[in-house]
Amino acid sequence: MKCVICKTGQTHPGTTTVTLQRANTVVVIRDVPAEICENCGEHYLSEPTAKRVYADADETARRHVEVEIQRYAA
Ligand SMILES: [Zn+2]
After folding, report:
1. What is the dotted CATH code of the domain comprising 11-71?
2. SS3 of the chain: helix, strand, coil, percent, to 5
3. Pick from 4, 23, 31, 33: CA 20 to 30 A from residue 42's CA?
């Protein structure tokens, strides 16, 4: 698909690192499957992937961890 950020690049399947902040918690999730823009590097998560990543961040925040680095497990 065409990138909506730079409006010139095309996206290709790949993996990215997603960083999410919840209150006092920062969650970094590596190896998340996404469409990546070849031009600006913007990433686009599919809806199920985004839901999963957000749920992980919420769960981590409930444990009151300050920083956690996770690996996305399919
Ligand atoms: Zn782009």
Report:
1. 3.10.20
2. 20, 45, 30
3. 23
